Amino acid sequence: MEAYSRGDFDGAVAYFHPDIEWSVDTSLQLDAETFHGHDGVKRFWGIWAEVIDEMKLEIQECRALDERRVLAVVRAHGTGAGSGAEVQSSSFAELAEFEDGLAVRVRLFGTVKRALSAAGLD
C-alpha cells in the first residue's frame, strides 16, 4: 500500500503473484468486477485514478486472520479528478490471501463485517 500511495504501481505489484485475482464486492462498488494479473490490478487502479487524483491509502487496522489471510481496514483520500476538492472515502476492508510470500487473491469489501463473512469468520 505504501508503494501504491507513492504512485509506484510496478513496485506495488511486485508483492503480488503474477496470476493474482483482484475483486471488488458490490458492497463497495455497484459495478464490481474481478481483475486478473498485474495488468488487471493496474487497470483497476486506473479506474479509481479517473475519479481521485493522487490517491493515498491509509491503513487504519491490519490483522492476520490465519496463516494465509490478512484483513486490512483502509481509507482512501486524495483530490477529486475534476473538481480538485479534497475527498476521503469511508473505511473499507481488504481481504488478502498469500502463498509463498505473495498475494494471490485480494478482495475489497464495503465493510469489515462483509469481509469477515466472506472469510467464514462472521
Q: How helix-rich are the residues, as a percent range?
A: 10-25%
According to CATH, what is the class? Alpha Beta
- What is the overall number of helices? 4
Low-pLDDT runs of 5+ residues are none
- pLDDT average, as an integer? 92
CATH architecture label: Roll
Tell me the domain tally.
Answer: 1
CATH topology: Nuclear Transport Factor 2, Chain: A
Q: Tell me the radius of gyration.
A: 14 Å
**Measured distance between first and last alpha carbons:** 26 Å
Question: Could you give a short account of the major beta sheet?
Answer: 7 strands, mixed
Number of strands: 7
Explained architecture:
- 24% of the residues lie in helices and 46% in strands.
- It has 122 residues and is an alpha+beta fold.
- It has one domain: Nuclear Transport Factor 2, Chain: A (Roll).
- Strands 1, 2, 3, 4, 5, 6 and 7 form a 7-stranded mixed β-sheet that branches.
- A hairpin with a 2-residue loop joins strand 6 and strand 7.
- It is globular and about 40 Å long.
Label this structure with key terms:
122 residues, alpha+beta, Nuclear Transport Factor 2, Chain: A, 7-stranded mixed sheet, 4 helices, 46% strand, globular
Helices, strands, pairings?
Elements: H1 2-5, H2 9-13, E1 16-24, E2 34-36, H3 37-49, E3 52-64, E4 69-80, E5 86-88, E6 92-99, E7 102-109, H4 112-118
Parallel strand pairs: 1-7
Antiparallel strand pairs: 1-2, 3-4, 4-5, 4-6, 6-7
Structure summary:
By secondary structure, this protein is α+β, with helices and mostly antiparallel strands.
